[in-house]
Amino acid sequence: MAAGLQVSGMTPLTTIDFPDHLACVLYTQGCPLRCGYCHNPELIPFQTDTEPLSWSDIDDFLKRRQGLLEAVVFSGGEPTLQPGLREAMLNVKQRGYKVGLHTAGVQPSRLKAVLSQLDWIGLDVKAPSHLYARVTGRHNQAFKNRQSLQLLLASGIAFECRTTVSWQLLQPEDVLLLARQLAAMGVTRYALQISHGNNCLDPRLQRPVSLATGQLTELRQALESLFTVFEWRG
């Protein structure tokens, strides 16, 4: 029963985490990245003193919600680093749910191992390659993220790319450069998520910088022109 999956929290109902579906979200523990704007810093450590949710309790919840919920999304943290992820996804499928995944693409081989179980994926693309370490606090992640994106493009599975932005870390021209790179690779669905500084890992980012309305409007129009589906969140 999904041994090795450490789930530290759950959102029992959401309409925004799996497009056009009522879903619940399971938050797994542990992430190798150190994004300053991270609003779930309690999920970063791989080892905590907090008792994880048992899979039997989660499974009981899913049994009770059959016919009401349509999908289960594995988020985090970074779910693909959980050894019990594939088994948990199989359990969810057996209950009749669609399966979604939120991932930063930190380990392409781990993503590849669960692709066959997925119906939808949200891939976090943190920054243009030359700024990736500034945002994530880790080196070599830009390359791994692009490998993960190539897997998704070849898979035929529905997915979106999305970038969370703190204007202390990225400028509009950085976002536009990244978006153009993604569009050139074949990405058709993209979202920009503006950090509001709530519960940020880096205290310096808890008071977000605002940009001029005209600057934001120009960026939004440019992004809308690049993708079949574009969302500006926040």
Folded structure, characterized:
- The protein has a single domain, classed as Aldolase class I (TIM Barrel), CATH 3.20.20.70.
- The mean pLDDT is 95.
- Helix 3 packs parallel to helix 5 (141-155).
- The chain has helices spanning 55-64, 85-94, 108-114, 132-136, 141-155, 172-185, 213-224, and strands spanning 7-14, 23-28, 71-75, 98-103, 120-124, 158-165, 189-194, 229-233.
- The longest helix has 15 residues, at 141-155.
- It is globular and about 50 Å long.
- Strand 1 and strand 2 form a beta hairpin.
- It has 7 helices and 8 strands, in the order E-E-H-E-H-E-H-E-H-H-E-H-E-H-E.
- Strands 1-2-3-4-5-6-7-8 form an 8-stranded mixed β-sheet.
- It is α/β, with parallel strands linked by helices and 234 residues long.
How many helical elements?
A: 7
Contiguous low-pLDDT stretches (5 residues minimum) are none
The tally of domains stands at 1
What is the CATH topology classification name? TIM Barrel
Query: Would you state the CATH class?
Result: Alpha Beta
What structural class is derived from the secondary structure elements? alpha/beta
